[in-house]
Amino acid sequence: MRLRNKPWAVKLVNDHPEAVIQDPDPAKKINWEERVADFSRPLEVEIGSGKGQFITTLAKRHPERNYVAIELQTTAAGIILRTKLEEELDNLQILRADAINLADFFDADSIDILYLNFSDPWPKTRHEKRRLTYKSFLKNYQTTLKPEGHLEFKTDNSGLFSYSLVSINNFGAKFDFVSVDLHHEDEEILKNNVETEYEHKFASKGNPIYCLHARFN
């Protein structure tokens, strides 16, 4: 969902280049060692962070890990940045860019976990290549994830979930976990689940949340 433009968010992003990388050149890798306090820590990346409830919660819970929120909209990036500054989340960086260039922004075998949360389903067949679980995106995930790394995907859209299961399976990845009703899994699984804004909204209405974890190596 596209957010209404907020001038304060645009100004905030422009005022904090140390926290937000804007429109990076795909021809040049980002030097993450210069952007994070301790590059040796595990790196987790969310593609399409929206207002950032998920990624900022993780960053607060796990100061021993590094996080990157990828978001195309400047307003969304500004909302995430506001939380980052208020909560003093030094382990979170924001990348305002198109995820199609993921493999240009990160080194091979550098990411521990990639998160896709409630991505745009792009339901029309002619838009298949825009789905974040289309094979060209999966190739980028395979390239940038560490050999022991994995992808975590959540959605409320049954069509996108079915498509993703087939696409990921055909790509040759292995599933560690699949659920067609995440919020009714056992307590051990739920205690590690971090809700997004959309997830809370949909689940509170009784809608099932679909989830999968997959490995590419």
TrEMBL record:
Q: What's an example GO cellular component term for this entry?
A: tRNA methyltransferase complex
Pfam family membership, one: Methyltransf_4
GO molecular function terms noted in the UniProt entry: tRNA (guanine(46)-N7)-methyltransferase activity
Alphabetical keyword list:
Methyltransferase, S-adenosyl-L-methionine, Transferase, tRNA processing
- EC class: transferase
CDD domains in the cross-refs: AdoMet_MTases
Give the SUPFAM superfamilies listed for this entry: S-adenosyl-L-methionine-dependent methyltransferases (SSF53335)
> Looking at the record, which segments are called Interaction with RNA?
126-131
Q: Which PANTHER family does the protein's record reference?
A: 3-DEOXY-D-MANNO-OCTULOSONIC-ACID TRANSFERASE/TRNA GUANINE-N 7 - -METHYLTRANSFERASE, PENTACOTRIPEPTIDE-REPEAT REGION OF PRORP DOMAIN-CONTAINING PROTEIN
Question: What does the protein in this record do?
Answer: Catalyzes the formation of N(7)-methylguanine at position 46 (m7G46) in tRNA.
Q: Which NCBIfam families does the protein's record reference?
A: PRK00121.2-2, tRNA (guanosine(46)-N7)-methyltransferase TrmB
Question: Would you tell me the protein name for this molecule?
Answer: tRNA (guanine-N(7)-)-methyltransferase
Q: Which gene encodes it?
A: trmB
